[in-house]
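I'd like us to work through together how a protein chain folds, taking it slowly. We need material for that, and I hope you will provide a protein of your own picking. Go ahead whenever you are ready, and we will take it from there:
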Amino acid sequence: MRRLAFAIVLGAALVAARVAMTADDGAKAIPWNEAEKHVGENTTVEGRVLGINCLPTACLLAFDPTFNRFTAVVQAKDFKSLPEDMLNAQYVGRMVRVTGTIQLLEKKPEIIISKPDDIQVITSAKDRQEKREAATADMADRMEDILDRLDAMIDRLDTMQARLDQMNVTLEQQSQQISQIAAIQAEAVGQSFETPPQPSYGEPQPRPAYETMRTLKRGMTSDEVARLVGNPVSSEVLPGGNTVWDYGYGRTITFDARGRTTSLSGFPAP
């Protein structure tokens, strides 16, 4: 079960990563050096930012080292959302896509960008693969940690269940002893005062087999079952790892792979 859950989560992560990669690759853009052929069009231009030049009135992101061809322009009014330090740190030297209307200013094509959504860094296939592998590894580590915690919790619950089962057995024994004492006392009252009562030392008597079978519960280990009702007439290991003990007369007990009772058939109810 742990392996199945692990595989499902990893598969979901890979699908999500592939969908994101497909979305990035689906965008269409024209090369920056063909921008002058598309003046007046609202389109996306792709290229590498080679430099930045900021003045009090605007910042220019150049796709040509001479600043004489296509540029992306950030006007002063938009410096708050696109400050110079962010432009320099995030876009200079990287492949980007700029979206907007291509305008011609002093025979030079440009797109005015006013918000971060107007300029996007292009993630290469290698970068996407590395990010996907890192995310998958991180998710695998987290899932493994969660499964380890679940295992520890199950172990604690099993220990608590074993203690509760033992307490139930002890209480049952005490209840039987009390019943035996009450029966002896009632019998003594009915007898003649001249006849001395038979001494009783409170020793528990063996329980009838039927009453013993009523003490069987789900969650008991195979050792606990054997102590209560003995060994089976025959046993069979099922393909899934479960084991079936057959006591005859239609009475069977099924244990899981860890040796704990999962179902009882043909035995009296508690």
The chain has five helices and twelve strands. The chain has a mean pLDDT of 83.
